[in-house]
Amino acid sequence: MATPLVRVEPRFPTEAARQGISGWVMLNFSIDESGSVTDVSVVAAEPKNI
Predict the structure, then answer these.
(1) Which residue positions in the chain have pLDDT lower than 50?
(2) Cα–Cα distance for residue pair 45/26, rounded to 1 Å
(3) Strand, helix or coil at 38?
(4) Cα–Cα separations (whole angstroms), residue 42 to 12, 34, 47
(5) Theoretical Cys-Cys bridge with 29: which of 9, 36, 40, 43, CB 3.0 to 4.6 Å?
(6) What is the pTM of this model?
(7) Measuring CA to CA, how many Å separate 3 from each of 9, 11, 22, 25, 31?
(8) CA–CA distances in Å: residue 28 to residues 17, 34, 40, 41, 42
């Protein structure tokens, strides 16, 4: 299991915050030999396109 070295807080979409919309995002990613995150892609999100 990987242990995070740095945590970056996600940025909430401005328009969603104004409208009181919340949701979730599932990501797929790789971690290279140096510990950097690579190949990030969105697997699923709700609500979509926010």
Answers:
(1) none
(2) 6
(3) strand
(4) 16, 23, 13
(5) 40
(6) 0.68
(7) 16, 22, 27, 20, 11
(8) 25, 18, 6, 5, 6
